[in-house]
Amino acid sequence: MSKQELEVLGQDADGDCCRGLAAAPLDEERAGELAKVFKALGDPVRLRLRLLSMIASRGEGGEVCVCELTPAFELSQPTISHHLKLLRQAGLIDCERRGTWVYYWVLPGVLDRLAAFLTTPQTAGATA
């Protein structure tokens, strides 16, 4: 099991959670951290209802075996493992080896914090 510490996305120095993109300009460090996450999501294999969504669709606390992920793609197992590694490095998922297989899950609250960061407050009279 991975023992790395992960930063809580969207939390500022005062502990306020989920300040949105429109709340204040990003500092250079925060912009770099978010760029890493969005870069990991930017590849079609990882984003477009593929690996991340296959893992996330198991619901909170759900997990999926790599043996269930690999057959869904016309890619080699090492390529799938590489994409999963990038999602782990970006702090979106984690995994645990159990015997021969590795099981993956979305880290709690990660997707909600990303969504909250990108959400801007609706103003009176604004339309979507």
General description of the model:
This protein is of the alpha+beta class and 128 residues long. It is built from six helices and three strands; from the N terminus they run H-H-H-E-H-H-E-E-H. Strands 1-3-2 form a three-stranded antiparallel β-sheet. The longest helix has 14 residues, at 28-41. Mean pLDDT is 76; it is low at 8-12.
**Distance between the first and last residues' Cα:** 42 Å
User: Level of helix content?
Assistant: 25-40%
| Largest beta-sheet details | 3 strands, antiparallel
Instruction: Enumerate the spans where pLDDT stays under 50 for 5 or more consecutive residues.
Output: 8-12
Rg, nearest Å: 16 Å
Mean pLDDT: 76
Write the layout of secondary structure elements.
Blueprint: H1 28-41, H2 44-47, H3 51-56, E1 64-65, H4 66-69, H5 77-89, E2 93-98, E3 101-106, H6 110-118
Antiparallel strand pairs: 1-3, 2-3
Features:
single chain, 128 residues, alpha+beta, elongated
Short overview:
The protein is α+β, with helices and mostly antiparallel strands.
